[in-house]
Amino acid sequence: MKIPSLLQLMLATALLAATGISGAATAFEKTTALAGSTLVMNGSGTRYKAIFKVYDMAMYLPATARTPEAVLALPGPKRLSFVAQRKVTGTDLGLAFMRGLKDNNPPELMRKHIPATSRLIEIFSGKSFVDEGHTFAMEFVPGKGTQFFIQGEAQGQPIDDVEFFQMILRIWLGNDPVDMRLKEGLLGG
């Protein structure tokens, strides 16, 4: 790498760190309807991998919650909305979700939910690419389960388990989130 390029990379990294960017560039709706309920956007942010934007994300809840514990304890429907900010292979996205699950959930919970976890990986790995600008979502509706969407289309049947959706939330809200600035943004920071 040439020195000017290295210097530019270092300056860009420092600038991103200094600005503490937490809000997403995508203009997410402030509310959304799900299962007869109006959900409010709790927060939003951008997932970075090094200095590259991967996706913008918003978390919708029945009421605002400012801590991970409050989000997990909140009853009712919930929605995670995403907009890809770069072209990503479906396999890479599925494996990244798997790493986030593994890093933020106890091994016994991971073992208990092997079929649901496998389904999540299968859904995203089944797509060659998620292109820049494409949308995907994860929704939980009590009594129905967790449903995955790509470009607004439901992907298979819902997975009926509140505990599994809490595991998914921990990818971004757990003790070892995939992106700390994104966690802060999702919690309204």
What does this structure look like?
- The longest helix is centred in the N-terminal third of the chain and has 17 residues, at 3-19.
- 35% of the residues are buried.
- The chain is built from seven helices and nine strands.
- Helix content is 40%, strand content 28%.
- The protein has helices at residues 3-19, 68-73, 90-104, 107-112, 114-125, 162-173, 180-186, and strands at 31-34, 37-49, 52-61, 78-84, 88-89, 129-130, 135-141, 145-150, 153-154.
- The chain has a single domain (21-186), classed as 3-Layer(bba) Sandwich (Chalcone isomerase).
- It is α+β, with helices and mostly antiparallel strands and 189 residues long.
- The protein has a seven-stranded antiparallel β-sheet with strand order 1-2-3-4-7-8-9. A two-stranded antiparallel ribbon has the order 5-6.
- The protein is globular, with a radius of gyration of 17 Å.
